[in-house]
Write a structure and sequence with these properties.
Strand order of the largest sheet: 1-2-3-4-8-5
Order of helices and strands: HHHEEEHEEEEEH
Number of strands: 8
Largest sheet: 6 strands, mixed
Number of helices: 5
Length: 191
């Protein structure tokens, strides 16, 4: 790999945006207050009071055989709920399977040995996307597991997924706070 000159490195740094892992991770992974605000805006029903643990670039490599993950930002709140916040800038058309994989790794931390399954702490995978994966123009999408025979019946897995869409066009269904955070992300991603 070619070594970059000081000028080339400075130019790359000046052109860096929140799309770059290091910037995204520094922005949220090193700032509990900002992460808490983001979570409370997109998940207001949780009324999160405090982030008690936050780990930027948390690696979850289990062994050399199976694929691990690197959580961009892993956070835990005062109730023990776990959050993985990820930046996705390229649409590889695999978001559903990607979310499931990250959710699986996150959920593996939500139950301690000897605990019953009903004691499993809730987990949230949040993807900030620079593309509209569902092509609906909405700023935020939520996925859940539903009973195929009756889509009104939600299966309580304690696993929640949120996709923020920086390419949103229709903000009629969201709060002014969600609208502002998505518009802010739009601007940061355009830089």
């Amino acid at each position: 790999m070619k070594k970059l000159s000081k000028q080339e490195l400075e130019k790359r740094w000046q052109q860096a945006t929140i799309k770059r892992d290091v910037i995204f991770t520094k922005t949220f992974g090193d700032n509990k207050a900002l992460t808490l605000e983001l979570l409370n805006i997109i998940l207001p029903e949780l009324k999160i009071k405090e982030i008690i643990d936050i780990v930027p670039e948390d690696r979850q490599k289990e062994n050399i055989v199976y694929r691990g993950v690197r959580f961009d930002v892993y956070a835990k709140d005062e109730k023990g709920r776990g959050y993985d916040i990820e930046m996705q800038v390229v649409n590889h058309h695999d978001l559903g399977k990607r979310i499931a994989f990250y959710q699986n790794k996150l959920s593996s931390r939500a139950l301690n040995p000897g605990q019953y399954f009903f004691e499993k702490r809730d987990t949230y995978v949040i993807f900030v996307c620079d593309f509209d994966y569902f092509n609906q123009g909405l700023p935020i999408y939520h996925t859940t597991m539903r009973l195929e025979e009756d889509l009104n019946k939600v299966v309580d897995t304690g696993e929640y997924n949120v996709i923020l869409n920086s390419r949103a066009k229709d903000f009629s269904s969201v709060s002014p706070e969600v609208k502002e955070i998505v518009k802010c992300l739009m601007n940061l991603l355009k830089m």
